[in-house]
Backbone:
C-alpha cells in the first residue's frame, strides 16, 4: 500500500483509527475491503464529515463462482447535511412521480410531458436507491463504487 500526498485531502486526524473492525483502502474511485467485513469507516460516505446516522443495507452481486449470488451486508453513515439532502431529493422525486400522473390524466399536450416527467422521476428515484454499488468481488475482496471523493481520499491508497 502506498500513501500518496494529496493536497485536497481533508484533515484526517481520526479517519483511519475510527475504523470499526477491519481494513480498507481506496483504489481509484473504489473502496476495497475484505469480504466478510461489514462496517465502513464511521464517516459520511460522501464528504467524510462525522456521521449522524448509521445505515445497514444488504447488497447483492452476481458472480461466476458458486454461490452465484453473493450477499454483502454493509453499514455506512451519512452526515446531517447529506442525510437531509437525501430526504429532500426523495421527497422531490415522489412529487415528480405523482405530479406526472396528474399531467398524464390531463389530455393531449400535457400527457406527453407527464410521460417524460414520469420517466425522469423513475430514473432519479431508482438511481437514489443505489447508495453504494458492489462493483465486483474478487480474490476475497469487495470493491464498492459510489463513495464520495473526500471519503475515499481519507482512506489509505493502493494503486
Ligand atoms: Zn456528508
Residues:
Amino acid at each position: 500500500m502506498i500513501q500518496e500526498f494529496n493536497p485536497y485531502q481533508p484533515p484526517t486526524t481520526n479517519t483511519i483509527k475510527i475504523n470499526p473492525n477491519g481494513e480498507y483502502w481506496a483504489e481509484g474511485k473504489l473502496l476495497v475491503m475484505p469480504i466478510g467485513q461489514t462496517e465502513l469507516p464511521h464517516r459520511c460516505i460522501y464528504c467524510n464529515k462525522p456521521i449522524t446516522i448509521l445505515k445497514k443495507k444488504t447488497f447483492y452481486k452476481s458472480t461466476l463462482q458458486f454461490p452465484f449470488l453473493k450477499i454483502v451486508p454493509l453499514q455506512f453513515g451519512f452526515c446531517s447535511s447529506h442525510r437531509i439532502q437525501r430526504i429532500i431529493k426523495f421527497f422531490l422525486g415522489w412529487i415528480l412521480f405523482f405530479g406526472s400522473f396528474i399531467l398524464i390524466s390531463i389530455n393531449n399536450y400535457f400527457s406527453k410531458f407527464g410521460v417524460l416527467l414520469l420517466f425522469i422521476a423513475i430514473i432519479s428515484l431508482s438511481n437514489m436507491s443505489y447508495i453504494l454499488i458492489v462493483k465486483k468481488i474478487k480474490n476475497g475482496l469487495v470493491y464498492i463504487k459510489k463513495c464520495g471523493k473526500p471519503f475515499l481520499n481519507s482512506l489509505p491508497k493502493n494503486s
